[in-house]
C-alpha cells in the first residue's frame, strides 16, 4: 500500500520538495492531447541531487504513450537513477491494454526505487493496481492526495 499524505520528511518518507515536483507533473498532464479512452497524465523523474532528469506526458509522441514511459524514454544514456524519484499525476498503471508492459513494470525495470503520485487510478479502463505492484517490487510508493484535484482536472471529461 502507498503511504499517505504528510507535511514534512519523516517516518512517512515525504520530502519537502515532493509537492513541488508532483505539482509540475500535474501541470504537464494539461498538455496531453485529449482522449476519450485514456487518462491525461504527467511525469517527472528527479535525481537524488534534486535535479530534473526527464519529464513526459501521455500521448506526447504517440497516441499510446503513457507519461511514465515518455519520461523514461527521455533519460540520457547512463542516467544515474540511484536515489531518483518518479512523480506522476496518476498512479502508474499496473495493467495496460495498449502495450505489453505496464508503467509499474517499466519503473521497476529502470531501477527507480521511489514513486510519488497524486491520484489513485479509477477503475474506468483497468483496475488500478500499480502502487501495489511497485511496492511488491520494493519501490517506495507515496500518495499525496492533496494534489488529486489538480490531477483530476485534465481528466474531467472522462469522469462525467
Automatic annotation (TrEMBL):
SUPFAM superfamilies: Cytidine deaminase-like (SSF53927). Signal peptide: none annotated. Keywords: Metal-binding, Zinc. One of its GO terms (molecular function) is hydrolase activity. It comes from the Bacteria. Transmembrane segments: none annotated. Residues 16-132 form the CMP/dCMP-type deaminase domain. The keyword DNA repair does not apply. Coiled coil: none annotated. This is Riboflavin biosynthesis protein RibD. It comes from Actinomadura macrotermitis. The lineage of its organism: Bacteria, Bacillati, Actinomycetota, Actinomycetes, Streptosporangiales.
Amino acid at each position: 500500500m502507498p503511504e499517505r499524505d504528510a507535511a514534512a520528511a519523516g517516518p512517512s518518507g515525504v520530502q519537502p520538495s515532493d509537492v513541488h515536483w508532483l505539482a509540475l507533473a500535474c501541470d504537464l498532464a494539461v498538455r496531453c492531447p485529449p482522449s476519450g479512452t485514456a487518462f491525461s497524465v504527467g511525469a517527472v523523474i528527479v535525481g537524488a541531487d534534486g535535479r530534473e532528469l526527464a519529464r513526459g506526458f501521455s500521448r506526447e509522441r504517440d497516441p499510446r504513450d503513457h507519461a511514465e514511459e515518455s519520461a523514461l524514454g527521455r533519460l540520457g544514456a547512463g542516467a544515474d537513477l540511484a536515489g531518483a524519484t518518479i512523480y506522476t499525476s496518476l498512479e502508474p498503471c499496473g495493467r495496460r491494454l495498449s502495450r505489453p508492459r505496464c508503467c509499474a513494470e517499466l519503473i521497476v525495470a529502470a531501477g527507480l526505487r521511489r514513486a510519488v503520485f497524486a491520484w489513485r487510478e479509477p477503475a474506468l479502463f483497468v483496475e488500478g493496481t500499480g502502487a501495489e505492484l511497485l511496492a511488491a517490487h520494493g519501490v517506495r510508493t507515496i500518495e499525496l492526495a492533496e494534489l488529486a484535484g489538480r490531477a483530476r482536472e485534465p481528466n474531467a471529461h472522462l469522469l462525467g
